Amino acid sequence: MSEPSRLLVLVGSPRRTGNSAAMAHALATGATDAGAEVTVRFIDDYITSFLRDCRACRGLDGECSITDRFRELFFDDFLPADGVVFSTPVYWYGVSAQTKAFFDRTFCYYAGSYPESAEVVARMSRKRVGLVLASEETYPGASLGIIHQIQEYSRYTRSEFVGLVRGFGNSRGEVSRDPGHPLAESGRFGRSFFDLKYSDYHLDTGRAANVWPDTAS
Questions:
Q1: Domain with 161 in it
Q2: How far is 129 from 169, CA to CA, in rounded Å?
Q3: What is the pTM of this model?
Q4: Which candidate among 47, 78, 141, 163 keeps its CA 20 to 30 Å from the CA of 10?
């Protein structure tokens, strides 16, 4: 019997009962129901400092000298995961500072100055990636910069960006009143996360004439 797929849900909101958290937990429930091994983490439980100059503050053993729990989050939860979903509010048309700090801090361990960077790079790569966004503003363009950032992160790490859910609300829990039903959609996203078809064609990509197998016969 194969091991269950491991999904990490990283919540970049400071609110434990906010809209990003509600959607993250709905997604986690859906993924658990589908048989995945799911871990939900709030980033600010682990990160208390922004990235510094590694050339100045890296320890003699090559380790990051910042004394927070980022290393624990990165090595114990992120690197072993088969898939990662970033759940963040939209702040100034970008991800939250907590979410951005997570991306920035990974540099401490994939940079060539870290002794085991080659292994880290290999384990950072080729994951499934998803995005959950909560915002007050319904304007479609409000999320485009974030989507592009996650797409480029996925491309850079040779990962598969398989989709996103966007919910609208301002006060805590208000996303539950969104007529688009983002909580239910988050649950569906979680249930299908490791089964969603992913394709990214180039001009010279060999491919069949049909996207889906012919089941009519």
A1: 6-192
A2: 24
A3: 0.91
A4: 141
